[in-house]
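Running this now, will post back.
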Amino acid sequence: MKTRVFFIGAVLALANGVTAPAGAGGFVVVVNRDNAQPTLTRSQLKRAVTGGLKQWPNGAVVQLGIIPGDAPDTQYLGSLLDLSTRELLSRIQEAVFKGELRRPTVLHSSAECVAFARGNAGAICVTSDSEPLPPEVHTVAIQ
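Update: finished.
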């Protein structure tokens, strides 16, 4: 029960953020190397983040990692989807409540995002473009 309360609190804390302009520099979407997706359309990204896409082509279950608070990383993700941070987090929370999306893994830094993607074949998260990426993690171009 404490985990659920923490997750909902983290989502509500993020909901007060503002959206960075689409294409804002400084961040990248990353996945595990076992996920051979070199690109995602914005529509595919939205489906992955809001529960419409359950598995990657490699069969791994999609697992979103998100940084709580008014994180620029989350603002950037919202901007890619043409959603405010509040709208993005509301959609995520609704999808989790309906059972359409696994509860996102709460991260606290870009380094944690990279570690999450490295250790989880279905991971997807946003990290700083200055964060070093190990061979087990690669960026996904968003079209």
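The beta strands are 27-32, 39-40, 63-66, 105-106, 123-128, 137-142. More later if anyone needs it.
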